[in-house]
């Protein structure tokens, strides 16, 4: 982030109403721990270590959102760098303490953050949308991911592609970035509907997620996403994408 790179991390709520930088609600697959993230306090989570893609423990401890934001605040973050905080749960697990902890942790670096989720209500609560503040820069930017399994299943049944766009815009009217599964973008393109263009017409930017690696199968997908003018691609292989497409 010191040179302007943008990164995405996931967040789940801890037993102390903090936020762990983890994807899963259960600990065993990602970390050396077991049980639910929500059953452990922040200090206990910090004693655990991440596992690599083979399942082997690493020397990297589990990080909490507050730790990550303090690390950012202590460094020199490029003004163009953006950290996407992808909240993996919904609003029902957010209490006043969790909301307060989120805002306190993120306020010092909010200008370099974008908060996203499949729950627009959760984003509203965490970011304090609609609440007045003396310093708007202490609020993160907003993103929205409308690609829940239920929504995609319904879309495949109804083929109401325009309705999908309109519903997403109405559900999260403050979102500046819309996060779409690349499979959905490509499928709708084959059906003759430019979903990226539809969101562009509404003044939104679009991220296509997630290209795992660049190979003979994914290269044509990336090429088509670029032809459709996607604004951003989430990938686990940024160096491969940059190299293959001379970015």
TrEMBL record:
<dbReference type="InterPro" id="IPR017946">
    <property type="entry name" value="PLC-like_Pdiesterase_TIM-brl"/>
</dbReference>
<protein>
    <submittedName>
        <fullName>Glycerophosphoryl diester phosphodiesterase</fullName>
    </submittedName>
</protein>
<dbReference type="Pfam" id="PF03009">
    <property type="entry name" value="GDPD"/>
</dbReference>
<dbReference type="GO" id="GO:0006629">
    <property type="term" value="P:lipid metabolic process"/>
</dbReference>
<dbReference type="InterPro" id="IPR030395">
    <property type="entry name" value="GP_PDE_dom"/>
</dbReference>
<dbReference type="GO" id="GO:0008081">
    <property type="term" value="F:phosphoric diester hydrolase activity"/>
</dbReference>
<feature type="domain" description="GP-PDE">
    <location>
        <begin position="7"/>
        <end position="238"/>
    </location>
</feature>
């Amino acid at each position: 982030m010191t040179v302007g790179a943008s990164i995405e991390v996931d967040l789940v709520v801890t037993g102390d109403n903090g936020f762990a930088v983890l994807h899963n609600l259960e600990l065993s697959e990602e970390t050396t721990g077991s049980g639910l993230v929500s059953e452990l306090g922040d200090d206990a989570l910090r004693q655990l270590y991440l596992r690599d893609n083979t399942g082997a423990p690493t020397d990297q401890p589990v990080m909490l959102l507050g730790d990550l934001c303090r690390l950012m605040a202590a460094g020199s973050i490029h003004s163009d760098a953006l950290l996407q905080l992808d909240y993996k749960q919904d609003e029902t697990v957010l209490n006043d303490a969790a909301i307060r902890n989120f805002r306190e942790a993120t306020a010092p670096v909010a200008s370099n953050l974008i908060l996203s989720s499949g729950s627009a209500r959760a984003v509203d609560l965490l970011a304090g949308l609609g609440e007045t503040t003396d310093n708007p820069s202490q609020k993160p930017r907003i993103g929205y991911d409308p690609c829940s399994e239920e929504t995609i299943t319904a879309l495949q049944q109804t083929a109401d592609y325009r309705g999908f766009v309109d519903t997403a815009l109405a559900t999260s009217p403050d979102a500046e970035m819309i996060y779409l599964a690349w499979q959905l973008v490509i499928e709708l393109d084959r059906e003759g509907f430019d979903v990226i263009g539809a969101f562009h017409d509404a003044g939104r930017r679009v991220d296509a997620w997630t290209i795992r690696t660049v190979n003979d199968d994914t290269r044509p997908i990336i090429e088509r996403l670029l032809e459709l003018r996607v604004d951003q691609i989430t990938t686990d292989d940024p160096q491969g994408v940059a190299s293959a497409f001379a970015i």
